[in-house]
Amino acid sequence: MRKNPDVIHYTEVLEEKVLLQYANRQYISTIKGIEPKSLNKSIGDSILVDGVYQLSRDSTNLAILGASVQANLGISMQNTPI
Q1: Would you say 44 and 53 are in contact if contact means Cβ atoms under 8 Å apart?
Q2: Distance set, CA 37 to CA 19, 40, 55 (Å)
Q3: Beta-strand (E) ranges in the chain?
Q4: pLDDT at 41
Q5: Do 9 and 62 meet the contact criterion of CB atoms below 8 Å apart?
Q6: How many CB atoms lie within 10 A of CB 17?
Q7: Which terminal Cβ of the chain has fewer Cβ within 10 Å, N or C?
Q8: What's the pLDDT at 27?
Q9: Contact call for residues 77 and 51 (beta carbons, < 8 A)
Q10: What is the signed CA dihedral for 30, 31, 32, 33, rounded to 10 degrees?
Q11: In terms of Cα–Cα distance, which of 25, 2, 16 is closest to 71?
């Protein structure tokens, strides 16, 4: 793909089913991992409904949650990371 002139950009994606847990709730979802350089700040900001686009803080990796995950785990939109 890298040598194909018709392809402007691509990234490899790792996708797995996972059991997520937050407080006393559990939810089965799909997690996707991509290369960090694949999402730049302007793209990240455009996909957010609420919150701050931040993939890491103090060398800790963070995640962008979908609305379904947020709702099923009961994560407040005002929640701040621990």
Answers
A1: yes
A2: 26, 6, 11
A3: 13-22, 25-34, 56-57, 60-61
A4: 59
A5: no
A6: 8
A7: C
A8: 97
A9: yes
A10: -160
A11: 25
What is the DSSP code string of 37-79?
GGS-HHHHHHH-SSS---SEETTEE--PPPHHHHHHHT--TT-
The first and second tokens of residue 60, run together, are: 């800790």
30 versus 49: which is more confidently predicted? 30
Structure tokens at 46: 């455009």
As given in the structure block, the two tokens for residue 26 are 């559990």
Q: How confident is the model over 35-76, as pLDDT tens digits?
A: 877 776 556 667 777 777 787 889 998 888 888 999 999 988
DSSP type of residue 38: G
**pTM listed for this prediction:** 0.67
The pLDDT of residue 79: 56
Predicted confidence at residue 77, as pLDDT, reads: 73
